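Final paragraph of the annual report: two paired records, presented back to back.
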Amino acid sequence: MSPEVAGPATAPAPLPDRAPPGPGPLFRLPGLPSWWRPWGATALDVLIAMGCAWFDAQFRTSFVEEQLHSPLPQGWAVGLTVVGALLLVLRRRFPAVVTAAITCGLLLGTGSVLATVVAFYSLARHTPRVRTVFVAAPVGLLLVLGVAVLHLRQYAPHHGTEVTQEPVLIVLVALTGVVVPVLTGLYPRAPRQPWWWEHRSAMLFDVLLVLLFPLANPVALVSGLNGPDDDPLLVPAPVLVLLVMVQGVALIWRRRYPDALAAVAVILIPLVLPSFSILPVSLYALAKYGASRRNLLLGSGAAAVVLVAWTVVATEFEAEQFIPYSIFLVVPSVVVPVLFGMYRGAKRSLMVTLQDRADRLEREQHLLASQARMEERTRIAREMHDVVSHRVSLMVVHAGALEAGAGGPGVATDTGRLIGDMGRQALNELRQVLGVLRLDDGEQQVPLSPQPTPEDLATLVEESRAAGMQIAFDVIGEPSATDSTVQPTLYRVIQEGLTNAHKHAGNVPARVEVRYRKDTVRVIVENEAPAGPVPTLLPSGGHGLVGLGERVTVLGGTFEAGALENGGFRITATVPLR
């Protein structure tokens, strides 16, 4: 019969340089720019552009040419309004360009009201560099304010708008058209814990508070006594406006420096008037974030004294106005902010304490889990050592005898069968130990063998006798059946003692004694000194006796191991019975 002829070897196909592209998202339009491919972004930008074009066109046509400032005719202005709104389709890719085009269109009299809001939001949200936003947003704000002033001058003579209403309208235009959209766009890009703020929502709130700080004083909203004719001004009006702006900007640091802010607010009360003072906000911040109760008492007391003194001057020492006026100033400006701030501060301290306690408990749980893993790893290492050391040592001894050819074919057969039995026992025990490590929720649990019994001790001794050792085995007393944790430890002590005798002394006479007492059980494993060099010297890790000592110590017993005077070795373990 001719041998088979192998066919030519086929070379494996070369791997491609890159993996083939997988199927893309279901909702992508081919041929579109990368920033515009998601179907949701495409549809949203188109709807926003069409909605702004329709709204701004309707808004622009609601005014006649004489009511709005525009160098262009009405038709041209409406057309530019629609074109500017349709540019919002490119707001994700070119936010700065789109914002500049829409803002410059306002100078030509377009009515891009809603498009301006969306453009400044897109500028803050989609501009790659945040520093560009901080440069472009103030410039755009100045242009929007200038256009608003031009429109008000054109609109006021036709409708009789009062001069006192113009600043309110200008501030409203600045907030709704530029400030609020920019802050809203920057909010998702801010870090979760920026600078000294606890979170970015707190930062956004403080920024809005700086912009709207006059509304934070309830006295300025409901008091009818603080009219401009009744308030004694200690500084010129321009200086008053500058001080009001400076103290308003200082509110940005109310969480970090509440003590200093409260001191500045108290000092500036006579200069900026209670109507424009940041005193309520600063006292609230001092009560909530201040670290010293003494500073809170001093600050609130000084504020009350200054307000009462200012009331005396403002009412010209008239008792009929002094009492209600002072109460009306002190209660909402000092008492209410301090009480509410103390309540919020106590609640904040409680939440911080609970959070710290939860974090500490979580760290302790991690430490306990780590300690448990280390202990379990140590226990598994001991089990692996006991299983491998004893079983494999006996297998090596029998394999050496089999290799030497001692005895006849029957002895070789028995020795081979014994090696196979020991190998199967070692594999079963290893499988149980490794099964614990590999066990998942969905896997079937590995069946465990029963714990060693007093009868298994005799079997363990017989295995070593079969390897050629002369072992005297004595059991004194009756074993106790009440404690199942002692027998495995006794089994491991005898196993480790016989294994050490195999490794380091060879087939020398040995003695195993198990003595059961009323409250304890004592195990002694000792062997005589080897007569010569051990022919089957086995490697040793040096951790067997350490593991035995840990086992016995955990049960509350004592463990001793050491050499004898005659050159032998003895292991003694005493374990209490529970």
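The closing record of the year follows.
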Amino acid sequence: MKQFFLLLLLWVNIVYVHANHIIDQIDWETFLSRHDLVWDKTPDSYFNAPFLGNGLLGAMLYQPSGNMLRLDIGSSEVLEHRNTNAKSIVDNGRLPIGYFEFATNYRIKGSTGRLDIYNAEARFNLEMHRNQTVEMRVKVLRNTDIIVLDYQPTENLKGYWIYRPLPSVVPRQNPNRGHVYLNPPAVQRIIGDVNLSIQKRDGGGDYVTAWKEVQLADGSRRLLITVQDDYPKNTDLNRVASLLNEYADENKMKTAFNAHRDWWNNFYTQSFVSIPHPQMESLYWGLQYKLASMMRKGAPLCDLMGPWYKETNWPGVWFNLNTQMLFSSLHISNQQELASTLSDYIHDNEQNLINSIPEEYRHNAAGLVRCTGREQIDPVFEWPNAEYPERSNLIYLMYYMWEHYRMTMDDTYLRKQYFPLLKRAVNFLLNVLEKDDAGKQHTPKAHSPEAINDSDTNYDLSSLRWGCQTLLEINRRLKLKDKQQKEWENTLNHLVPYPTDQNGFMASAHQSAPLGHRHWCHLFQIYPYYLVNIEQPENQEVIMRSLQYWGDPKIPNTWTQAVISSMYSSMQQGEKALEHMNYALATQNLSANFMHSEGGSPCSETYGGLSRMLLDMLIQSWGNKIRIFPGVSREWKQAVFHKLRAEGGFIISANRKNGSTEWIEIESLAGEPCILQHGFNGDYKISGAQIKKIDDSSCRVYLKKGEKALLYTDNAKPIITPIVIPQGHYNYYGVSAAKH
């Protein structure tokens, strides 16, 4: 009888699960704790320190060898704003703020700590001389621009924080000038018990660092810090002081702590990924934390540093790869608010994009310079030079804005903002196409990023093809009957083919692909545009020839290896995708706190590239088809994801078990057509919708807006739980004596 009731309960559970689709059983705090960064040794540099940020302010805690404990402060809105003839990464590049040092009467012997990514808080224990221990907690409040550091001094320990402003100068200088612009020294003031460091700028306005230390009811101490910049005005010092005084109240701060915790706890639940690769899983979730720390709605566009400052050769925003890659994963991971900060910035600066190109083209075109300060005022024909401009940067950027649109299917945005600007981006090339005697159209002399100068670069040819195809697709969808329709069709019919040689796709009409080169712009037709792809039998050989020539595992660059992995995933070669994933994780560019750098300078693009690398293994949605686990290696018998987004406005969850798909849930947000490459190994069932089988690997799912469908195998249990690898090395990042 007991066995009968157990079987009955099991049957009821299975029926209940199928009727109500999937059940989420994730204990988020426990799950994310296995991906916290952990220190059992003292962090001693920018590249192994715990980092915190709220999309505007940033903080890092570490102790350089032989020096005091240091709290670095950064703000992504503090820029130079000069009106000179220098490049705008000097005129308008990022400026340093400064740092705090902890002076104590006892020497710090060492420290241990943890970066709690679920609650966005760093916790450290400082081991002092004579067995004194100081506990520290650091937060950068998500909803209020205040850095909070709490510490519990012991009976005999005395200590205080000293602020060290850094010289206000953009570190990158114009080599033709021979000097850099240095702003005046910072001036100190005190308003009540609030300390202020006021940094004037020759270019206008100032930025202010303010701090206040208070005694709490339990005997602990609290350091409150803010950085404010009201350019072009001077900052209202009384307002800044009032802000810190307001949050010095413990009840007010308790409310702020709760709001901070709630925001972060909710952020993670927008989607879920778990894989049988502990290091990559830890990196993925750590990068979700990092991306949210770097961006927020209404804040400045994220640059190559994010909110953490370090002297760098790249104190600005780059647009021939970096920004594109940085934003390449957010729309898939269902972080729509963060992803929208890119389109917000681009559309807010549309007039500057028009003004950045020669006046003769401004009536119908716009462009995007390689690198700039955040105000986007540089001429496209200035970098790299006037003769060989980068004409396709804006089209390339708008590809990822297109993916973001396709995840939401917001046709109002498509009509009013996206389509007009994509037309301008494409016209920047159409206006200068050259026709040969055979009627073939060619792109003029241009720069292929980080490679060569030539005509008919594959960077321009692939970008122009994708742009024209997309404009025609929008024109059909919105029934616009645009007057340029025939021009786009004519371009697609007459544009010269992609140049190839014995190594596959060339860099341009006259130059072979560079060997061992980190940038893959000569292969954009393969990825990310998917113009040449696995579903075209006639192109599979040239794709593999190109990829095998370029995709060298010896290229010592993190994001390059991530892209190679993504390209193999697009070809559904999971073993090669995993191989290059592991190469990416092993590069020296990726540090213990997964800060990425080249030549010692921070480079934020890699965080999006590494995240996209994993997502491309789990789900792809191009060519009006959703592909489940397309790039997963046979080594991964299990994998699970929940609430990832796919083109057409779909929310997808899926589970892989014993090497094949066990179940898939699809929710339609827009009522668009749905073709699914499912990955089932054999028969499967469906509830909630009708399907039409296309072949053994694909089907068409019929869903109206707001409907869900569940596809599943016999005995499937659609329950979302993390994958656990026994003896797996989780908490991989930080400074761990066990790992190193």
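The chain is about 30% helix and 25% strand. This concludes the annual technical report; the extension proposal builds directly on these records.
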